[in-house]
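Request: Not sure, any thoughts?
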Amino acid sequence: MLSGIINIIKPAGMTSHDVVDVVRKKLGIKKVGHTGTLDPNAFGVLPICVGRATKISQYITAKSKVYVAEIVLGITTDTEDSSGKVLQIKDASKVKKEEFVCVAMSFKGEIKQIPPMASAVKVHGRRLYDLHRKGIEIERTPRAVTIYDIKVLEFKEWGSKHPKAKFEVECSKGTYIRTLCKDIGDKLKVGAHMASLIRTAVGNFKIENAIRLDDFVKSSSPDALLISIDEALKDYPEVFIKPSAFKSVISGAKLYLKGVHKKPENLKEGQLIRLKMNDELIALATVQLDEKSSKILFKPVFVNVDVKDDI
C-alpha cells in the first residue's frame, strides 16, 4: 500500500478537500488527507498524507508555518479578507510606514486571537462558517497562538486612502493571518483586511520544493513524488531500538531503556522522537518518565509497520 506525503501547491479557488479528492482519484487510493485547511482563496503549500501517513498529520501541523500576506488598510470586511462584505471604510492615508512596522511587530510572541465567523472552527458542534452564511454571529473564545516572526517586505500605494503592505509571518498552528491583518488595522485605528495569502512553508515542506497540482495530475509516476514519513519528520530525534524490542514496540507497548540500542542525550519528557531499527522508521513515540525509577521510557503514538512486515 502506498504511504507517504506529497508536497503540493494548492491553487487559489480550490478548497483543501478538493485537492484531497484530486490526489485520491489520481493515486486510486481512498486513504488520503490534508495536513490543515488552507483557505479557498489562498495559494501555497498543502502537504497531502497518503496511506499510513494520514495518521501523522497532527505531527506535521504541529510545526511552524510561514505565510506571505498582503494587507489593505482602511477597509474592514465581515470575513476579514477580500471575499467578504465591506463593513467600514476609513481614510488610512496618514498612517506612516514606521507606525505600521511598529504595530505589526507588536504582535510577535504569544497572542490571543478570536477565530473569524467565516472559519471552519466548531462551536457547540457547528462550523462557524455555516452560521456566518445564515447571518448569525456568536461569541467566540479567544485562542492562544504564537507569532514567531514578522517581516515587512513591501509597501504599495502608501499615502493613498487605502495603502497596502506585504509581510511575511512565521507562526504556530491555528493562527489566522486574516485575523492578524484585522487586528493590525484595529490597533492602527483605521481597520484593515487581508487581500491575498500565500503559504510558503509547513514545517519542512517548502514552496520551492513543492509540486503544482496540475503537474501532479499530469505526472506519469505520481507515487514517485511521495516523501517518506521518516523524511517528513526528520527534525525529531532518532532513538535506535534493539531487535529484541521490535515486536513489543509495534504492538504499542512502552519501550524501556533495556530495549534501546542508541539514543541522544538530554531527551525531555513530552518530547516526540522517532524509534528506528536498521535505519528504518518503526514508530513515533513520546518521552515519558517511569514513576518507579524516574528514568525515561518511550510510549509509541504511531506505528509505521505491521507485525507481518519484515525489517
